[in-house]
Specification:
Elements: E1 9-10, H1 16-25, E2 31-34, E3 40-44, H2 46-54, E4 74-75, H3 80-90, E5 94-98, E6 104-109, H4 111-114, E7 123-126, E8 147-148, E9 151-152, H5 153-164, E10 168-173, H6 177-184, E11 193-198, H7 204-207, E12 222-226, E13 229-231, H8 235-244, E14 249-259, E15 263-268, E16 271-277, E17 280-292, H9 294-297, H10 308-319, E18 322-326, E19 331-333, H11 337-350
Parallel strand pairs: 1-2, 4-5, 7-10, 7-12, 10-11, 14-18
Antiparallel strand pairs: 2-3, 5-6, 8-9, 12-17, 13-19, 14-17, 15-16
């Protein structure tokens, strides 16, 4: 039994954001929704929240709008061997344990899946940009090698993937590539494999795929990410989502709110139909993190310039298998000086340094 299960209890009226904090801060990857008498009314997982975001729910709304009200449970007296068999059969990582009054009295977890396995899937990191908006810092240093805390940005990114179980890395370079190669070498110091592809001229995020060797692990999707993004995205969940949905490509997206600073008027002719004062519009924006399957990689010719959105548009209508994966975890694209300064303070509390 997991003895920190009390830390994952939450009230139905608490917010989705509150559930997220529990899921992200605790190792059990689930929040248990209980009433005032500790009766279980639902559970919330990372996937439940992502599905809620796709339904345009906001993080401030009640967790009751995303919780699973019919979770799999077991009695506290159930033998652990039976619980393991149940979890493996149902493909779940945890089971709330109830007493005879259906009150939550424990949480059993399947320890095996909670340990990160090793993934042979390639990780492709874009590290060739000029970083012009961060000058003069990038006059003598490529942006991915700028230090956040006491490590280069790219090292923090690579270590995040290593922690998730990934061991095969490819890095695309263009601007000052020698600094990147000299620092990371072949990855032996980090216990992984690092190879490089060099863009003689900028090819765009999609075009760099055409430089990858043709002997990539057969049939395995590749995770692709800009080398200047700090994030706590669960790469294991992202890859599982892509594979489970048989996607050609999966784009990580992030919710972005924009408040129109004026009252918006809707009318017919000269008649006002409705008025909304300073409405907030919500969009999904590209987070610069992708999973791409071999068919997409193989569609890019060598030295062909193309950006990822354009490449994905070409595949969108072929099989309708270009999907989006909403992320709610920490994410910061270090593109401007204020982003760089923010990252310096954020890194201390993220557990990434």
């Amino acid at each position: 039994m997991s003895y920190c299960w009390n830390n994952v209890l939450i009230n139905p009226n608490d917010s989705i954001r509150d559930a997220l904090e529990i899921i992200n801060n605790e190792a059990l990857r689930v929040a248990l929704v209980v009433d005032n008498n500790q009766h279980l009314v639902g559970i919330v997982t990372d996937g439940d929240i992502r599905r809620g975001l796709l339904r345009s729910l906001t993080l401030g709304e009640s967790v009751s709008k995303v919780m699973n009200i019919s979770p799999i449970t077991a009695k506290i007296s159930t033998a652990r061997t039976d619980l393991i068999e149940l979890m493996e059969k149902k493909g779940i990582l945890s089971v709330p344990l109830l007493d005879d009054e259906n009150k939550v009295v424990g949480l059993e977890t399947l320890n095996g899946p909670l340990r990160r396995p090793k993934y042979q899937n390639p990780v492709f990191l874009m590290a060739g940009g000029f970083g012009t908006r961060l000058r003069p810092l990038t006059d003598t240093c490529p942006k991915p090698m700028l230090k956040i805390g006491n490590k280069p940005i790219l090292e923090t990114v690579i270590r995040s993937f290593i922690k998730a179980g990934f061991v095969n890395f490819y890095v695309s370079t263009h601007y000052m590539p020698e600094q990147i190669r000299a620092f990371f070498g072949d990855g032996a110091d980090l216990g992984v494999n690092i190879s490089y592809v060099h863009e003689e001229f900028p090819l765009g995020t999609g075009g760099a795929l055409g430089l990858l060797p043709r002997d990539l692990p057969e049939g395995l999707p590749l995770i692709m990410m800009n080398g200047d993004v700090l994030t706590k995205v669960d790469f294991q969940r992202l890859l599982e989502f892509h594979v489970r949905n048989n996607a050609d490509a999966t784009m990580c997206v992030r919710e972005y709110d924009y408040q129109i600073p004026y009252g918006v008027i809707n009318g017919e002719g000269n008649k006002i139909i409705s008025m909304v004062e300073k409405p907030i519009q919500r969009f999904f924006i590209n987070a610069g993190i992708y999973v791409v399957s071999p068919r997409v990689i193989q569609s890019v010719p060598e030295n062909h310039r193309i950006d990822m959105p354009t490449l994905l548009e070409q595949h969108m209508h072929k099989r309708e298998k270009v999907l989006m994966f909403p992320i709610h975890e920490y994410w910061l694209d270090i593109g401007r000086m204020d982003d760089f300064n923010r990252a310096q303070s954020d890194i201390l509390s993220l557990g990434l340094d």
